Amino acid sequence: MLKKVAVFKENQFEDQSFKTFLVHDSAYMKVLNFNFKAGQELPVHSHDIEGQLTIVVLEGSGQFLGEAGTAMDAGPGDVLISDICEPHGIRAQSDMRVLVTIAPPI
Amino acid sequence: MLKKVAVFKENQFEDQSFKTFLVHDSAYMKVLNFNFKAGQELPVHSHDIEGQLTIVVLEGSGQFLGEAGTAMDAGPGDVLISDICEPHGIRAQSDMRVLVTIAPPI
Hints:
five-stranded antiparallel beta sheet, four-stranded antiparallel beta sheet, Jelly Rolls
């Protein structure tokens, strides 16, 4: 069965912290949507497991974060690819929606 | 190493057919960007192999296509999840950019 998820309708923004929404979870991949209000951030972190993830900016802008304070501008259509074991994070400059895909799923 | 790909800068539109751009290919996943001009379409197709794919609308609108002429509206932030072996396709109503993630990679 084809499954459609309207991420912009399903998830909101919150003042306290970024808001997570599980889009899909299967044996093959996990897909999450994070909404950040301007100034919110997913701090740099990593997991010591096999696999890769992508972070796709759907709306808004900010920065992809890496180890040792590194940062790259992140805007609509920008995709970050990272090993799951590599330090990565996100900081929002404007309200920002991103989609994270993890394969194989955590 | 973190890798950033600016999909909106890297890929263009073409009059003859939709334009494909390989964003990432690894042991874990394959990520492709397709740009469609209004009216262009990726016809319904499937591959008889294990795995799933997602189609994320980055910009523009159209329809996700399924078997027997089924169609679902597809706009920014909409995600289609499909088994690779399930018939799926896309049709663009306006100029449309989508990101396709396949895991495990074809």
